[in-house]
Amino acid sequence: IASLTLPWCSLRPFPLGDFQFSVASDDNSEFWLSSDDSPSNSRLAAFVGKLGTEWTAPGEFTKFSSQVSKPLRLMSSRRYYFELLHKQDDRGSDHVEVGWRVFLPSLKFEVIDSSYISLYTDESSLKMNHVEHIPQTLASHSGSYLWEAQQDEHGADMLKSDPRDTFFLTPAIEASRVENVLVPCAYSPTYVVKDFPIARYQGLQFVYLSFVYPNDFTRLTHMETENKCFYRESPLYLEKETHEDTTPAPGKMAATAAYNSSEAARSEGPRVTSFLKMSETTASQREEGKGQEEEEEEEEEVSDYSYETGELQQGWLEDSINWQRTFSVSSVDFELLRSDWNDLRCNVSGNLQLSESEVVDVVPFSFPRSIYTLLRIVNVEKRRDTARGNRYLLELELAERGQRTVRLSEYVYVLLHQGKQDDSAEANPDGPAPGATEPQPSPWSILYGKPILCRPLRLSWKQDVMVHFVVPVKNQARWVQQFISDMARLYGATKDTNFNVILVDFDSDDMDVEKALQDARLPRYQYLRRTGNFERSAGLQAGVDTVEDGHSIVFLCDLHIHFPPNILDSIRKHCVEGKLAYAPIVMRLSCGSSPREPNGYWEVNGFGLFGIYKSDFDRVGGMNTEEFRDRWGGEDWELLDRVLQSGLEVERLRLRNFYHYYHSKRGMWNARIKKPPKD
Fold first, then answer.
1. Contact yes or no for 451/441 (Cβ under 8 A)
2. Which residues form the PA14 domain (predicted)?
């Protein structure tokens, strides 16, 4: 989206008279004019459209009635504040201009000459990130039609409140209250691929998804008109594909899978919608359909309607309606058709759903019921291992002796009987076979030969561990300022002092990054200045190198990110030193979208947003700064390969309200600027 606000200009008219203004633009625009030089008195005078579909040609000042203002009495002895807002999508050319005329209908609008315009504020000495001087008016906030759509209810279910979003504010239960509730047990999942040879960029094939309960509404139902992959009927969707003979280049894996799927769809022959069973399509109906096809072939050359005669063609036959035709449907749960492998072909599906019956079997045995009463199951996450046992993260809201409310957030493990099933798992360290389904859970019991609900050793997360956000930047002043402001707001909302912002600055000349950090209300920050071209891998490595405590978490981050309030809690509970790393899936916003209007898709391919303990990061060798010296793209997949080979699990979940802003690539880092043609 291109958005332009010019709140620093004022206007001087001719001597006393009535004037009309008009605005022309592609796409939408608004012209706001004050009755004097005060921004607070601005009112909307003229506009082009509200919906994003309206536009005009350059200088086309009378296409819409809304473009032209009412007659306004102006005096040359006064100055008049104005604002011009412009909104453009990612298609076509963009322009905006304002014209005026003395109020005589026979006169044409003329573009306002610059001699009548003066700066509201002199910005010549200001850096790009300085925005405090810009007036906050109705035009740039609730009064604008361009923002009106954001006030209406959006179709994304994820925008609705969820107790997960603020559960981190609930006081935690004392660890001593629950440490002896379950028997301890060793935690060693079979899907861990320690020391297993992984081809370059094939680590994605060994990342599995977790199941969640209750529904977190991360499924992008409002985007399924553009992508219906959730309803795939091809059996290939239910099976994990391998690239057996070749190693795909970065970024090509998803396209290859999609191509194979479409090829299979074309070769399957006649398709029957999943809502209507093949057995219900009777032979007579199929014969009727065949006959209709033959008729259509014969009449293929005949138009349904002739514009020359204005009459129906004589040979045109209208299908009769069979009011007796019916079909039957049965309940279909498409969630049951999904697998826990990392599907790179579907970027609108949400987190996998966990059945309620399984949850209620686990929850009652995880806390001392003599002291606590269950108020609410806030969140349950399950990592499936059919060979050895399932891991659960339980997050429960409990009442302590009927008084204060506390939060339980701990990992538990359902350990299967150590027998032949476990021996077979040792022979298959890659985990369960593709497409394998999970057996129905048995009632929990500590009897020999039955599954045991236990406390997994060395799988406890620390609720106050330090988190370091590491971000390399160069010449993105407004975005850098936005990121710093978001981090300050995160601190204000959580009052959490255990996080640190590390900005690695590659010679930015459009702002003073260090001063911006100093002025922000952050619990702590570190500023590193580097020279030379922007290098993401080197920047991340330099930032991590400043962290001295190996028992803290580093979160490798990008600049254009919107964080939910529970981001710190989410990172901490999915990172366990020596066991777990965390790669939350971010939603990539489309052009013109915002966190209040989240149109876009889940970035299922990207692993650039990555949380890991500093000791584990060092152990796997850190970033590959040699191979990815003068380029970026693929460094996240290469790091993922080494993280998995070290024996760590990578937790992969779609995180609610976690967005990547759409932004222009212009002027970014190493991009070369085209020189204008010589006259």
1. yes
2. 1-116
